[in-house]
User: What shape does this take?
Amino acid sequence: MLLPLKGTTDKYLADLSRVQATMDVAQRQVSSGLRVQRASDDPAAVNEILQLQADIAANRQTQANFDQITTEIGSADGGLQSVIQLMDRAVALATQAGGPAATAQQRTAMAEEVSGLQQQIVGISQFTVNGRYIFSGDQDSKPAYVLDAAQPNGVRQMAAAASTRVIRDINGTSISVAKTATEIFDARNPDGAPAAGNVFAALGNLLTALKSNNDAGVQSSVTALKSAGDHVNLQLEFYGETSTRVIQAQNLAKKFLVDQKTDLSNTRDADITAAAIQLSQARMQQEASLTSQAKISKLSLFDYLA
Amino acid sequence: MNLLASLRSSGNALAAFQDALGTVQNNISNSSTPGYAKQRVNLEAQPFDVAGGLAGGVAARGLDNSRNEFADEEVRRQVNTLGRFEAQSEAASGIEKLFDVSGTTGLPAALNQLFSSFSAWSVNPRSTSARQAVLDSAGQFADQVRGLAGSLKRVSQNLDRQIASTTEQINSLATRVQHYNVERRKLTQPDPGLDAQVHSALEQLAQLADYTAVKQNDGTITVLAGGGSPLVIGENQYFISADVSSGGTPGNALAPPSARILDWQGREITEQITGGRLGGLLDVRNRVLASITGDAQQCGTLNRLAQGLADTVNQIFQSGTVSPDAGAASGAALFVYDASDPTAAAGNLRVNPNLTTAQLAPVDSAGNANGNAILLASLSNANTAAGKIDGLGPVAFLSQIAAFAGRESAAAADGEQSQQQVAAQARTLRDQVSGVSLDEQAISLIQFQRSYQATARVLTVLSDLTQTTIDLIK
Assistant: This one.
């Protein structure tokens, strides 16, 4: 180990080292744009930086989740709008088939069409997004209903689970994102009997009445079909509201993201101008120091003794 | 006064000036020698009485040593503090670098990725790919924790090697002091060269450890380490040693040992060593590093993070079910670690090797299909009540560890920088008192050369006069 030989040289080197350290810090800040690259740059800011990074990662994932949910809600919304159109068509058919003018042959033909409507609505109840049956509630790995002519309403229930799945917005507020096919198409009273607004029951009754050429049955089904259409409309409102809430939550998340990035930038990023000035000053200081050192005479009195 | 007395006096003066010139030459030769203090011949006027026949003249009466022990002691004190800061800065910097605060790599990134995978899973709890992503992220997190624990262990081993090496250097320098004492006892007068060697050794020793040096009446130096354990007494040296093979284990028999310094009798003197490079290394090894990786008294913050997060995640998983279906199985633990040693939790944290994607439990105890997944994702939020470790969320707790490492590194670096100035200042002050100035020596050289020439001239005149007197006799 060699010790510095002269205190003055040691002091000069310590000063140079200090200036060099200042230059290194400024250089790092200018080249990276970051004020805090290592924990020692500002230990007090580490917690805020890491928490903001975690919040930003969580926010980005929340937005990705919302994008996925938006696809689901869009599919559900589109499906229910189709159901409403199909129910309107069913009401029209029932109205047309009701009354003494309609013949048995016409009712049979209409029954064919109503059967088609029923198939389409069951098909909608089996919509999938990313492999999930979106109207099957928590049992989303299988369809909620399948066609079954042996059943009174023409369908058989495959999944009866409620939909407990929610999505959290950036504030932690839960948003319920789905209705089940049972709630939408197969509303029932507490005793288990089909409730007013039961789509499958209304269509099933109409189909049965048309097939049996039962004029009274056809006429009475019009009211049930209208009620079922209204019920689906009501369910559609849920998706409309959910869609609105999701959009608001997305906007909120985006706004939060901007705020979080701004906070992170304020905490972590370097003031490039200040760093550049500091670098310039330190470089000037270093050059001045080296120059002045170089100008100090290295001669001693011995050099003048000849 | 006769001519012969004058001749003798002039001859003595020439000898005195030769001594003075020799001293100047020695000063110049040692102007760059570590530990050397300039010497000056003490010239003494001789009795002069013309009537009484005393010829006067000048004689050399030993050397004046310009060494100032207080200045030397101050330099050693400052160098000791500088050595401590330098070692702390270097060692703490190595620890701090392991904690990435950019958020793009390392443990913080893996932790964020784990929480993101929980969040993505909450949207589609039955999805096999989402479940696999959770397992993958958990595996990466465990890898990062183990990797960090491994890196810290390597830092610890490196510090142990440095501590052992520094202890060897201390013993080596103590040997030099002991050799000095042996040589010093052989001399009646202090030798400037020997004096320079021992002071150089003492200054180097100050950089390595704190000690007390006491000069004895016989000129030997007694060196006592830290709190009084002898290193050198007279002609005897007492070796110290480093020991990392065992430690006190009142709290945990399996805990990694602390680094210990033992005196010549094998007694622990670690706490007595607080300064110099050795003190700095011991501080980082036994305090800074141990607080993160654990020792016999504490399990270490990294282990607490690993254990705390694993326990929280496992408890959430095990409280739920793998699906909302009736009769669905309960969830299994996601992480496993060796619970028998609290200081090894981070070092062996792994994803449960028997776990399949089907055994992950997104459903909470209330039956909500993604209740657990949402709760797990929310652990990243500082305001979430679940999963607190010492009242802090996992991210904040990890931040606390990184900030601690950063704070130690910054404090040591700042201390090193300011102490460099203080030590340099102390050296400058010492050099002003006892350093060799070439200009000053050049003046002395001229002065003694002129004196020598003048005396020689006088001698020539006296010689001529003596010759004249002899010629008269002829």
Q: What stands out?
A: Residues 72-102+158-298+403-426 of chain B form one domain. The mean pLDDT of chain B is 92. Chain B has three domains: 3-66+438-473, 72-102+158-298+403-426, 118-149+300-401.
